[in-house]
Amino acid sequence: MNKLLTPIHCGITGFGSPAAEYRQLPLSLDELLIEHPSATFLGYAAGQSMQGVGIFDGDILIVDRHVTAQNGDIVVAILNGEFICKTIDTDNHALLSNPVEDEPCKIHEFDDFVIEGVVVRSIRYHRPSPLLSN
Asked: Which residues belong to any copy of the Peptidase S24/S26A/S26B/S26C domain (predicted)?
């Protein structure tokens, strides 16, 4: 188990002391979530096509441009002018949505395709953030 993080038990077992296992963590969220600060950007997911891999509409995506995309990675890319987030299938030159019932999007040699970065983390909001409201 990672000694830097405090385990949080999700089962309901009663009313223990809120301070029983409290301790100050010796790291920041920036250090925990971002490995290459100068090559990382944030975006948010729009749509339902990646729910099968745990990315939901409105989730924050941490995208690292320093990481080289490998088969099966979730990438942010531009395909023919459209900014998208999909799983890359390098073996079949395709982009996959999840649920897997959706048809793969083949990448052809005539397509304008650029990988902008690899999604290395995602953050889900359980309450709306005032910083992200319109």
From this structure: 14-120
